[in-house]
């Protein structure tokens, strides 16, 4: 395989769908949201993307069968309230620089093929510290939809994201703009150290409002509760190690 | 040389052979098994693969002559019990990401050309600790041959290999599945620190059963015994350094 | 997007312009000068260059809108004293080795299209220490313009720049020579640790003389003054930490 | 510039020349020998090779003019004793893996164009310690010229070079063999820490014998003497720091 290959599974009629992109990234937030949506909506797999820009790897299922690293596109037919949806999810982003550009171009081809009305790319925003109530930040390639996006609960403070947005989540906005495809990136605040289902819940909350969707969040809540327990444990352990009278440790490397 | 080049040495008729792949990897297990098989079966070299995806290197033979880094394909005509065989062995895997995909594709082209009935890729599974009796793990791209593979002595415990299988051994399964070629990866448990002929023996044991082969293992046994001696020595040295009363060392970096 | 793409915004007539290149590099000197010139001269954006050789990134504007990483070309119609100008500025240089060569070739194509009479590439020269009065060093791909360049105030001491000039600033000279395009690199001395508007001022001084331009430097002066304050603060703090009787610190790692 | 470009300077008739390759590598030995030969023989530059596989860099001459990183081919018409010669020398080897293969292929194209009778690639062999009398090791892609090569003073001990030969020096042998071009690699023993004109002298001694050349070595001897002085100085300094009563230093990190 020398070129990126898109395998299509039959035809699927969609009416100007919204495309949601949840690829692996900080806190795994985008991927958690996309997988949760696919599960809850019982979306249907319509495409699979293989690429020499992905790592040379198979993943192993619980029964010992293997699955080549890929990205997948799922489709969902909306209802009287919510628009049709394309959901892009996957095992990996590109591992090469040029590959990022190539793959983002292919995702936009898919959006164009289905005449997608908008793209939401989902990700995390690393803050370096544990966040009690994660905000959801937005960025967009179209100034005149900012008020709309704010109305869904996303925020943006001047000076944030000064390092830019790296990877598919950002590139889809940048390359999308050149093609006239409107796109919004929603980023949940997250420490950056852990898989973060709580921040994923926050992102899903904003996305649900934007899509006029009602999605059961029980599974994400359960996963968030688990992670919460782990964090509490870590904090307890840290407190037990609070210094009474100072003692030397290998980490100190100095003498009083 | 700007492209991967396959040099063929004459024609060789094979009847739906099994392809065995033993390239360098953890513990050198796959390579040890493949080279042992080639030697014992007196298999015949029929192809050599050169590629700008391999390192820019020649190896030097004991007499000072050089050999460009390559992969090689050997052929063996089976007998009334064992099927014909193709054995892929070599000095290196690809050093670039895309090269892994390109080369795995070329290996599958060779399998298809010879109408290979199945591919076994051989490798190691690093456990991080010394293993007394190494198991052989399997993974496969075809669910309905799992019971057969288990009957040869390979095992799989749910949750293992959660990091996936990286490199040619995995990619041949992943890309093979897309082409409808059934493939099994056999991985010998190994510490990850040493060349491991003992684990190679275990893998060869499973493969021999699968192939209905009887192969003399003396050479592998001798190499395993040598390595065993080295390990015993290391353990002795470690025990002699067991701490009596604690003394400061350069590693301690602190003071009581 | 699999290839570097140049988007042109209308036609612009220029009479044998001088091309000025200010891309990100040490001390951000070239970029500071080029952006300052664009602002002061109210130069007009005529081209934008996007490339898979740039990082896969969008930058985020203060209002939350995004901008794909790019390089931009601005044009300015000179006056009775100063020649017409092309100014190349941008967010990034290539992140791949081959990309550097490809992009430098594209910049030279643009220079040739406009029949540029000369190219000035601007950058910094890292000295590793704080510089009170930064000199401006030159290098050129054409020996017989050296005296002219010196007359603008740039200097060169034998043995300097022995490590060569890396990146677009150098490559445009090297590849330009092969095409018969004369080019000069102007490098402001800089510590290498900080954005350096003071060194940018020095480079702009030389360039203004070369271009017969009068440019208001107030903005650069203000930024230089700010950085100066920061440096003074750092020096004060360092002096306060001057050792009286030696105390142990984590950095010492030893005992007297 | 998107592709490797060979610029030819006029025609030069050569009668089955020997090609000598001295590119940058360990101890700069190959480059020192090739440059010395070019200077002493007053060889004529006939080709220059530019490539996006080289670093994106210009070097700066003592007068401030620049020179794009390249490789160069020089030609020399032999005499009644010595054969004609092609000498390849340059600023850099490829910085990418595939580039190494591409460039070695181009060097072999040049050898074939001139019907070169043999190629000598020159380099160093790092031993990790200072060598008083450096040997010259050989490796070759043709077994039946080993005795001849030994007669010139090069040696080879079984088990040496077990790590192979990496880069152009090795690849020219490997790819040359596939094209039926006989080639020898001569490697001077060297510490690996310093430019090594003394080892270059040793390699030039073997090459001169092989070529039936008489070359003045004064310049190399002078450079070797300079380096020798530096080494002596280093050794003196080390001896002065020999411990009398042990004192703690930052390097010690422990306490007796």
Automatic annotation (TrEMBL), chains A, B, C, D:
Highest taxon in the source lineage: Archaea
UniProt protein name: 3-isopropylmalate dehydratase
Record's keyword terms, sorted: Coiled coil
InterPro entries referenced in this protein's UniProt entry, alphabetically: MJ1210-like, Proteasome_assmbl_chaperone_2, PSMG2_sf
Coiled-coil annotated spans: 210-240
Pfam families xref list: PAC2 (PF09754)
Keyword Coiled coil attributed: yes
Origin organism lineage: Archaea, Methanobacteriati, Methanobacteriota, Stenosarchaea group, Methanomicrobia
């Amino acid at each position: 395989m020398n070129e990126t290959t898109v395998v299509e599974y039959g035809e699927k009629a969609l009416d100007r769908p919204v495309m949601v992109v949840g690829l692996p990234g900080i806190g795994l937030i985008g991927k958690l949201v996309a997988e949760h949506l696919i599960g809850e909506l019982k979306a249907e797999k319509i495409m699979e993307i293989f690429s020499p820009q992905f790592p040379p790897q198979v993943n192993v299922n619980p029964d010992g069968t293997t699955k080549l690293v890929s990205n997948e596109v799922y489709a969902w037919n909306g209802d009287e309230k919510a628009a049709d949806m394309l959901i892009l999810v996957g095992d990996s982003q590109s591992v090469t620089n040029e590959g990022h550009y190539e793959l983002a171009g292919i995702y936009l081809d898919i959006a164009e093929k289905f005449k997608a009305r908008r793209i939401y790319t989902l990700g995390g925003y690393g803050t370096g510290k544990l966040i009690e109530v994660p905000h959801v930040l937005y960025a967009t390639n179209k100034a005149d939809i900012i008020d709309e996006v704010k109305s869904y609960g996303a925020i943006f403070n001047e000076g944030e994201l000064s390092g830019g947005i790296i990877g598919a989540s950002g590139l889809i906005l940048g390359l999308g703009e050149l093609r006239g495809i409107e796109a919004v990136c929603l980023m949940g605040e997250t420490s950056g150290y852990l898989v973060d289902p709580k921040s994923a819940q926050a992102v899903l909350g904003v996305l649900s409002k934007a899509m006029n969707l009602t999605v059961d969040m029980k599974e994400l809540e359960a996963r968030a509760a688990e992670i919460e327990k782990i964090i509490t444990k870590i904090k307890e352990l840290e407190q037990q190690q609070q210094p009474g009278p100072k003692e030397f440790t290998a980490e100190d490397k100095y003498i009083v």
